[in-house]
Amino acid sequence: MTIRYFISVFLFGFISTFSFAQNKGWDLIRGLIELSANAAKLSDNCFQLTEDRIWAGGSIYYPNKIDLNSNFNMDLEVFLGCKDGDGADGMVFIFSPKMAMGREGEGMGFSGVSPSIGIEIDTWQNGHLYDPPEDHLAVLQDGVVHHRYGLTQPITIPNIDDCENHALKINWSALEKTLTVTLDGKQLIRLQKDIIQEIFGGTSEVFWGVTSSTGQYSNQHKVCFKNIRFNPASAIATSSFKKIETALLDNQIVPLAATTFSSGKTQLSTDTQRELDELVAFLQSHPDNNLGIYGHTDSSGNPTTNERLSAKRAEAIANYLITKGIDKERLLFKGVGDQYPIASNDTPAGRAKNRRIEVYLFKPFP
Ligand SMILES: [Ca+2]
Ligand SMILES: [Ca+2]
Question: The dihedral of CA 252, 258, 264, 266: what is its sign?
Answer without folding.
Answer: negative
